[in-house]
Amino acid sequence: MGVTPNHQGSVSMNRAGETSPWMCYEVLLDPQRIQQLLTQFAADPAGVAVSHAALAEPVPAQLRSERDEWILQLRQPPFPPWAASSSDIQLTLSQGGQRLQTSCHRVSQGGQFLHLDLPDCVRYAQLRRESRVSLEQGTGVHLTLQFDPTMPISAEPFDLSEGGLGALLPLEMPLRSGERLCPVILRLPGGMVETAVDIRFLAPCPATSNWRMGARFDQLDVEQRSLIRGFLMDRQREMRRSLTPPRVPAN
After folding, report:
1. Same domain? 154 vs 112
2. Where are the alpha helices (DSSP H) in 62-184?
3. Helix (H), strand (E) at residue 221
4. Which of 53, 140, 155, 210 is spaced 20 to 30 A from 247 at the CA atom?
């Protein structure tokens, strides 16, 4: 499928009974998904933080696309003493709760510019507080955005957690990261949740006219959260059953 799960963290509880953050790791091989993530990182005016084994601490940089390659521009000197002969320098780009590990194939301008070319494989990590499950067609989950009462928009959710969801929007919409959408209607096999969401990221899908959206639920009540939790538990059981090999009867 182009996405190979590599490691998934676990959810732990502290003494107050709160869920501690955990990281979800993936090795991404799908060029379209890699392009989406790099585009998302480049769109943030705050830039990214670049880490490397030779650096005492992360350094600020801006990511941009230029002539069929991705380039990192470090924002302020002194620039690290990258070895001019080094190839495949391993870098970690951090932005909010996301990390992207990739290789730099060459440096220029005295170490200020790091050339990533077009990565064909990256390691992606995301900080999450809730377990998230993927949604496929036929799971009975539908999402409707009604921020314009005269023109409800149907979106295709691709994953779901108690705290939020990811969805594909069918066309370019006048939305921005950080914007609040209200109301949105999430239809599950067991019922309907009408709530608001805060958009955390938006990124175009290069091969289609769709946009990829990540959003957090805002002010779910107990009944709504219970409905979502029940669906997630059922979905996880279905996924475990699909991964369990059938029993071979004894001769």
Report:
1. no
2. none
3. none
4. 140
